[in-house]
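Teaching assistant here, posting this on the class forum so everyone can see the example we discussed in section. The complex has three components, and the goal was to see what a joint structure prediction looks like when all of them are supplied at once.
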Amino acid sequence: MLSLRHVSKSFGGNHVIQDVSLEFATGSLSAVIGPNGAGKTTLFNLICGTLHPDRGEILLDGAPLHGLPPRQVARRGLARAFQVASLFPSFTPWQSFCAAAVPERLGVAGLLSGFPRQQGRQRADEVIALLGLDAVAHTPVEQLSHGDQKMVDIGIALCAHPRVLLLDEPTAGMGPEERWHMVETVRRLWQATGLTVLFIEHDMDIVFSVAEDVTVLSYGAILARGTPQAVRADPGVIRAYLGSYAKEAA
Amino acid sequence: MNNDTPPGLARLLPLLHFAPLLLLALPWFTQAGGTLDRISFVLVYGLFAMSLNLLVGYTGLVSFGHAMFFAFSAYGFCLLLGAGWGVVPAMLGAVGASTLLACVIGAVCVRLHETYFSFITLAMAMLLYNMIEIWAPVTGGDQGLTGMVRQATLFGTNLSAGLPRYEFIAAVFCASAFAMYALVSSSFGATLRMVRDNEPRSAYLGVNVYATKLAAFILAGLFAAVAGVLATLLVSGAYPTMAFWSTSGDAIFAILLGGSRVFYGPLAGALLLRLLVDGTTRYTGNTSLVLGALILAIVLVVRKGPVDWLNEWWQARKARPARRTANTGNAVNTSAAAVTADPAAEARPC
Amino acid sequence: MDFDALAQCLSSAPCLVTQSTSGLVIGLLMFLTASGLTLVFGVLGIANFAHGAFYMLGAYMAYTVYANTGSYLLAVAAAALFAAACGAVFERFVVRPLKGTDVMMQLVACFALVLIIDDAAKLIWGPAAVSLGVPASMRLPPVHFQGGVVPVFYLVLMGLSAAFGLAIWWLITRTRFGMTMRAVAELPSMASALGKNVNRYASAVLALGCGLAGVAGALAAPMRAILPGTGLSILLESFVVVVIGGMGSIPGALVAALLLGFTRSFGSIGFPLFTEGLMFLFMVAVLVLRPQGLFSRAGRTH
């Protein structure tokens, strides 16, 4: 279970995250939504260790994550995919997965190990199959379509068997068909692996059809939290964010 | 899925890894002193450039002071020989001391922003240069340390001239090259490339970026130190210019000309550079001017070294068949054959 | 190491005066040069590895103009303009095409340029050192202060350096050009929003930075021998100043330069062999303890 307790973060006079407390049950599929500037990506940054909270705690199964640098947060089982695909240009997808799959052999510890390792190869093959990237597994990433690149980005995050997966706008920049393909892949992935998945999303159709629970952030504070139906009907949320969408859907 | 044996001749490709050993057999084909000397020169400065490429090409750290490890080791070797040490202990001592220096300097420099890193490494190398010039009683000042190298004997053969010198340089070169290749093909080597490509993402994947960069810096310093010892044999001594910024700069030029993304690129670059300098000296005394102009032209027009450019063109050609088969929905086998099955392909010597 | 000599000097007014003025002069000149470097890096994010070459060009130009006209002020003006013009050309033909490429490419380009300029200088002015000597107009009897001797020229130098420093400060803090500069430094993304002017603006900043180096070269010419290749030691000095003072900070550069200037002048008495080393040690200490420099500026430092 991933929990945030009274987390706050400010930059100068700008209170980006204000006293946020959340819990994400193990194996849940949750969405974080809200207008631009609400603090969604900052929240992810806090969870991952890129930023440290000014106040509050972030715990994974009881063990504190706050204050740890990103690489140690990663070692505790947290993985993240990015809004703009963050890849390794000189590696093919398969090679990237081989590398990401064996983190304990990266760096100085890998001086005497070959590359790619057997364990890495197997995991790379698995992830490629899981995400349907067989056709482009050995193509340099620069030549891949935007959608494939985002898929590889997620794949890299998956390779080391994370416990929690954070997806920052996985469908950003995609056309309608690609979006649903991405969402289906993520849902299939979630069902197959039992991961705890958190995703930031702006496409409300996707959010309300896939997520188990939805958190709405506005100006750094939680506006609403609950099942998609409950959130959609919440008057505060409608006023601040959803507006006509909710009326149409209802 | 990815271990198809490549057809025919391609199976012999891995044997190319051992090509450098041919260097040892070279004297059977030519005994011309000048040729062997020139090849020795290229091997020594090529090794130096290759060691720098561990930082520049593989990790993305542009050090402008790499010559400090080269020079420190050269002076150390001469001093130890002068103190009566044998060749092997002196070499181990010099390389060891230089590697220790790399530990200290690396620990401070490696966490710096890239431009700071380049300047600071340059500043440190020039500081060493100044110290060498000033501390004349120990270092011989601007005359350098000469004479000790004549005493370098290994198993009874004098290494300071002729055939034994060539064979020793070639042998040490091969050993160093193989060691470096093992390094870059390892998981550590893959990590270096990850850090070069995308440092923040590497951290998100659990990589200790600082430790990785420091290790790369130390290892690069180690191989530069080896090159330094070989250099003393070649030029019969240790001289202050070995620490001067132009020595580091020449190595960077070699990397640019020969390619930073290809393992033996810097060696080819050292050869090209040597040919260029020899060629220009024949026509004019202003080699720096011509060399500088040429390098500037390459950087402004071509935007990357000639060999890097060729390598990219070659990789693009190889990848094209894969895309065609992907479009026709054909199996992974064809794409695996078209794009080499060896994931360390980019590091393959060529 | 001669601490006795140092202690003696510190307790004797004449020595104190002489060494202090010396330190001031050295420091102020270092400040001028370094301010050019820190300006370019702080505003444009470009580390001008060729900075020392512009200093050298300024010095040589001053030497030639003075030799032909006998007017030192004209020489300094010519040096400033020449170095600034070279800076603008440098921006247009080297920096601009390489914007956004690999840092290594930018550094190699600068390095190649230094090679070219050094060799060209050797061709034009010869490999031997040339010296301006104290200009005729300044060969007045020295000023006596508390028993110490201060050459008039030093006073002129200090005055000119301070004047230039003030001019730069005024330019940055009081003019629209300066405000734009600071805005671009804070928010580089805004630069593209400013449109076409960005290129001319970058040229102007580089011209200013290189011009400062050229002026410093011209001002130092009477005291320092001019050699092809002096550029590098100047570059390293400037860089040490900038690291200690903080990239992009003019006041920081002043404080750091004065610190180093005094270290050098008093160091030449107390520990002549280790002056360089000490300056260097300061830099390493700053890097370890406070990497953004003594007077850090938001953005671009680390």
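For the discussion questions: Chain A has ten helices and ten strands. The radius of gyration of chain A is 18 Å. Think about how each of these relates to the inputs above.
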